[in-house]
């Protein structure tokens, strides 16, 4: 017997994985554009795309931003984009933490509620609220610090 069937199977799996990852990346980019265009100041999707694409070095000469208001550019680049990127980073961090929990306990059902991390964080936050412990120190919320300590 030859190994062509196994090789084809491996290649098919890689191709499927590549297609799946490409689809997910396109969905992520689409959600970035849509979430950047929605808000208190509704900006057209064309304006959002023009502002973002004009910042790419190889597309800056092709994209026409003469009709884009400077206020729209400020809203997109200084307010919405940092929040969207932060949301993506936090989502990736939470997903990574979930995978680490599942690998650490060798249990695909392991999550923060089963292990007791979430109730501990809730207890820490409750203690900070009930005892009216300060609102902030060193730029950090004391409530968040107590929740973190409770989770540990």
UniProtKB/TrEMBL annotation:
Assigned keywords, A-Z: Cell membrane, Membrane, Transmembrane, Transmembrane helix, Transport
UniProt subcellular location: Cell membrane
> Which Gene Ontology BP terms does the record give?
siderophore-iron import into cell
Q: How does it sit in the membrane?
A: Multi-pass membrane protein
Q: Which residues cross the membrane?
A: 20-39, 84-105, 125-148
What GO terms fall under cellular component here?
Answer: plasma membrane
Primary location: membrane
In alphabetical order, the GO MF annotations are:
transmembrane transporter activity
> Which SUPFAM superfamilies does this chain map to?
ABC transporter involved in vitamin B12 uptake, BtuC
Q: Which InterPro entries would you find in this protein's record?
A: ABC_BtuC-like, ABC_transptr_permease_BtuC
Q: Which Gene3D superfamilies match?
A: ABC transporter involved in vitamin B12 uptake, BtuC
Q: What family classification does the UniProt entry report for this protein? A: Belongs to the binding-protein-dependent transport system permease family. FecCD subfamily.
Question: Which PANTHER family is this protein grouped with?
Answer: ABC TRANSPORTER PERMEASE PROTEIN MJ0876-RELATED, FERRIC ENTEROBACTIN TRANSPORT SYSTEM PERMEASE PROTEIN
- Protein name per the record: Iron complex transport system permease protein
Q: Which organism is it from?
A: Candidatus Hakubella thermalkaliphila
């Amino acid at each position: 017997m030859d190994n062509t069937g196994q090789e084809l199977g491996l290649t098919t799996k890689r191709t499927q994985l590549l297609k799946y990852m490409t689809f997910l990346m396109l969905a992520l980019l689409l959600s970035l554009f849509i979430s950047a265009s929605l808000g208190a100041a509704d900006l057209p999707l064309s304006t959002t795309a023009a502002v973002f694409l004009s910042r790419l070095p190889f597309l800056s000469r092709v994209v026409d931003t003469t009709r884009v208001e400077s206020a729209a550019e400020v809203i997109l680049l200084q307010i919405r984009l940092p929040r969207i990127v932060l949301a993506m980073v936090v989502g990736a961090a939470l997903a990574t933490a979930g995978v680490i929990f599942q690998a650490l306990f060798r249990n695909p059902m392991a999550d923060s509620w089963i292990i007791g991390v979430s109730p501990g964080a809730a207890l820490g936050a409750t203690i900070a609220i009930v005892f009216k412990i300060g609102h902030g120190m060193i730029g950090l919320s004391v409530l968040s610090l107590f929740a973190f300590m409770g989770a540990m």
